[in-house]
Amino acid sequence: MTREPSRLVPTNHVEPRCDQCERGFLPNAGGGTGHERHRPVCRHHDCYHGTTTAMIARRVGVTQPYPFRLFPDKKTIFVAALERSMEDTRLAFEAAADGTEGDERALQAMTNAYAQLISTRPETLLMQMQGYVTVAAAEARGDDLIGEAVRAGWMRIRDTVHRLLGADADKTARFLACGMLGNSLAAMGFP
Q1: How far apart are CA 73 and CA 75, in angstroms?
Q2: Phi and psi (nearest 5°) for 93?
Q3: What angle do the packed helices 122-140 and 145-164 form, to 10 degrees?
Q4: What is the tens place of the pLDDT at every residue in 41-99?
Q5: Rounded to whole angstroms, how far apart are CA atoms 25 and 48?
Q6: What whole-number distance in Å separates Cα of residue 136 and Cα of residue 142?
Q7: Which long-range contacts (CB under 8 A, 24 or more apart) does 50-59 make?
Q8: Model pTM?
Q9: Taking the CB of residue 83, how many other CB atoms lie within 10 A of it?
Q10: 90 C-beta neighbours (distance < 10 Å), count
Q11: What is the torsional sign of CA 105, 110, 111, 116?
Q12: Residue 17 backbone phi and psi in degrees, to 5
């Protein structure tokens, strides 16, 4: 059975593309132009490319030019935020397991600390998740800085967890695997 083309979409239809994140979008009748016009329905409105420095400045409560006194460009701001979120996670594990290194209490303490961290400061997890998904696109363009930061941060977290779990490779792998599953579930909105 052959399917007839839809009569709702003309044969010359081209899906609108975002001028900032270069993704397809459903036009929003709310007016405006470019990315801001379709932002409420853009599938990637919180992506690295879809976030402007003005949005970052508003989020942290400063004027738009101020971040450029501290960082040369948006990518450097992104990497600094990514490194900070990964270091906060590593430090949460270290503080939680203080004095319990190498025993079962360390595993439970780190699990509880991470659950607390992502429930009270979800931006920490979401920043890391954004970093993970940005790596491939950046490296496809020949930009290795974000990937290097993500891999270095991940290895610092992994090395800390490994040490705190008594250098047990199986416990380390299970802890990190369960953590990544928890990250995915939390990012999708599961309790």
Answers
A1: 6
A2: -65, -45
A3: 130
A4: 333 445 677 788 888 888 888 898 888 888 899 899 989 999 999 999 999 999 999 99
A5: 16
A6: 10
A7: 50/18, 50/20, 50/21, 52/20, 53/77
A8: 0.72
A9: 17
A10: 18
A11: positive
A12: -120, 140
